[in-house]
Write a structure and sequence with these properties.
5-stranded antiparallel β-sheet, 2 domains, ATP Synthase, domain 1, alpha+beta, 5-stranded mixed β-sheet, 135 residues
Length: 135
């Protein structure tokens, strides 16, 4: 079966680099599936979930906002967060979500609000991915 290289890079490290059969992610225009030999494109990545199909199994990752570059042979994702489902601490993510929501209820500067919104998006993405893999 044909494969495409999926590379996910955060400021800290390369968090994923494997050949997969398909990648599903949410870009600026909505959810998209990427197969080998996909037409080249660049798009923004929305915080949420990336699903990589490998050997007939789905691997789930929570990701933050970022950018995606697709060529026929590779999907490169640059993001501020990428965590595999099995590495997500659901209790910590839920706690972070509650803290962010409480902070947004306060009167805060626009700069602080942007940081808190990013934190909320990270926590929500982690919870979505972790809870999907529980089902």
């Amino acid at each position: 079966m044909a494969t495409i290289k999926l590379e996910i890079v955060t400021p800290e490290a390369i968090t994923f680099s494997e050949d997969v059969e398909m990648v599903t992610l949410t870009g600026s225009e909505g959810e998209m599936g990427i197969l080998p030999q996909h037409m080249p494109l660049m798009t923004q990545l929305q915080a949420g979930e990336v699903v990589a199909r490998k050997n007939g199994q789905n691997l789930f990752l929570a990701v933050g906002d970022g950018f995606v570059q697709v060529t026929g042979e590779r999907v490169a994702i640059l993001t501020d967060m990428a965590i595999r489902a099995e590495n997500i601490d659901e209790a910590k993510a839920e706690e972070a979500r509650k803290r962010a929501e409480a902070r947004l209820a306060e009167k805060i500067s626009e700069e602080d609000a942007a940081l808190v919104h990013a934190s909320l998006a990270h926590a929500t993405a982690q919870l979505k991915v972790k809870r999907r893999t529980h089902s």
